[in-house]
Structure formats: structure tokens, C-alpha cells
Amino acid sequence: MTGMTAESVTDSPNPWVAGHIRSFEATAGRPRPGISDLLLTTRGRRSGLLRRTALAYVRDGDGVAYVLTASNAGSDRHPAWYLNLTADPAVTLQVGAESFPATARRATAAEADRLWPVVVAAMPSYVAYREATAREIPLVLVTRTRTG
Q: Full-prediction pTM beyond 0.85?
């Protein structure tokens, strides 16, 4: 996703998420109390447009990866951002005031088994989301892209 400054970014059509993005930007990414948030920009798998959403995250044990949960609030469908990054894993993250290129991938089964307790400890609502759907909710590991 190089050259992002030349392209416009479309924020989530969900009013709550769009409002959260505006709040995130207005506060330079100061997190909500008790929750770590970031902005994720993906390329639309059908439109080719840059799409941005706000997501809660936890860090992997080694602190290298940002762990995202593709819960879609327990919906039976994967969220659009997840489908977009499976088509193009090159993403941009904004964590606090810092924005950087990153690469996303679905956690392996072993990684997901290890990380689900960490995710649930940070956001207990994920327990209800898992119970609300028959689909497996993917965990996504996003790491900073090394340049040079």
C-alpha cells in the first residue's frame, strides 16, 4: 500500500465505527480506558479502494504482532476488513499517532489456541461473540513491514 498519501481513504460505513475513527484521530489515538485501539487500512478486495476501520487489539507475547479479532460482533459473516486483508495482506496500521505499513495473516490453529485467552482477558465480550456464531472467528496477526 505504498503511496497511500495520494489516495483517499474511505472510513467504515458503520456510524459507530466512523465516529470512533474521528475520535481516534482527534485524540492522536489515545485509547479508550482499558482498551487498546488502532486504525486498520485495507484495500477493498472488489473496489480496490482503501478502507479504514477502528479495532481493538492485544499484543502477542513477544510484542511484535498486533492481534486482531475478526468477530464481526458474533455475526455469521466475516467482517469486510478481514476479507480484504485475506485478498491483500499489505495493510497500514495507525497505533497512537504513528502510522506504518504492515503485513497481516491469519493466526495458525496453535497460535489461536494460545492467544484466545489473551484476547478474552482484554475483551470479555468475545466469549459471547464466539457463542453467537457457528463460524470460527479468526485471529489475525499484523506485523510491521520491514523496509530496506
A: yes
**What is the DSSP pairing of strand 50-56 with strand 9-11?**
parallel
Contacts of 40 (CB under 8 A, 6+ apart): 52, 53, 54, 55, 68, 81, 85, 91, 92, 93, 142
CA–CA separation, 23 and 33 (whole Å): 13
Q: Which helix (H) or strand (E) holds 58?
A: strand 58-59
Tens digit of each residue's pLDDT (9 = 90 or more) over 79-124: 999 999 999 999 999 999 899 999 999 999 999 999 999 999 999 9
68 touches 111 (CB < 8 A): no
